[in-house]
Write a structure and sequence with these properties.
- Helix content is about 30%, strand content about 20%.
- The protein has six helices and eight strands, in the order E-E-E-H-E-H-E-H-E-H-H-E-E-H.
Length: about 220
């Protein structure tokens, strides 16, 4: 198992596959490097070197008490890049990993990079502060919070308006709902909303013999 050590003594797991220009992947919360396996295999198969690490506190890396912040995440990424002596690298970050990539660029520059790819990255600070004068004043967020507290049902009804007719929006407020037809369930029975969204197992694909095989 490949690991590298950061200056605070934390051990971090990483994958390093293939040969060629390096492409470094940073996963989202609460995932690990395995989240990128399909992309890494595909890209490595087309002549690139692909690298992904488990962020501290995730997967096979140490669960540190300190250092669970963007600056340290970026410094951990820098330690990996420097340890492997990567140049002309492409950084790819998803969700929290996108924040890690942008913070890396802000703290360590672009001398080892040629590109950065952000996939559904976490947004930057939106609140107006002395360090972020272009942000929104706290009053704007207070108004949103007050509006949700006053009429939560109407808030979500308005939120769903661009996606579907208003008269269908109340289904989001029911404790139970019928499966939305995603193909993961054939029962048609009513199930808890949380289960219908995340807990149902996908149907196993059929093999050439007609039987099913586990994914």
């Amino acid at each position: 198992m490949s690991t590298f050590m950061t200056k605070d003594g934390a051990s971090h797991y990483y994958k390093d596959w293939g040969v060629g220009q390096p492409v470094v992947f940073s996963h989202g919360w609460p995932l690990n490097a395995d989240a990128w396996d399909e992309q890494m295999f595909y890209i490595a198969s087309h002549g690139y070197r692909v690298i992904a690490h488990d962020r501290r506190g995730h997967g096979r890396s140490d669960q540190t008490w300190d250092g669970n912040d963007m600056n340290t995440y970026a410094d951990d990424l820098a330690a990996l890049i420097e340890m492997l002596d990567l140049h002309d690298a492409v950084l790819v970050g998803h969700s929290t990993g996108g924040g890690e990539v942008t913070r890396y660029i802000g703290r360590h520059g672009t001398s080892r990079l040629v590109k950065a790819v952000l996939v559904d990255a976490i947004p930057p600070l939106m609140l107006k502060t002395e360090a972020n004068p272009a942000g929104q004043p706290i009053e704007a967020f207070d108004q949103i919070r007050a509006g949700v507290a006053t009429d939560r049902s109407q808030y979500y009804k308005d939120l769903s308006a661009p996606l579907e007719p208003i008269d269908q929006a109340p289904r989001y407020h029911k404790a139970f709902e019928t499966c939305s037809g995603c193909g993961r369930c054939r029962s048609g029975s009513k199930v808890p909303m949380t289960a219908s969204r995340s807990s149902l197992r996908p149907i196993s694909p059929k093999t050439s013999s007609g039987s099913t095989s586990p994914l």
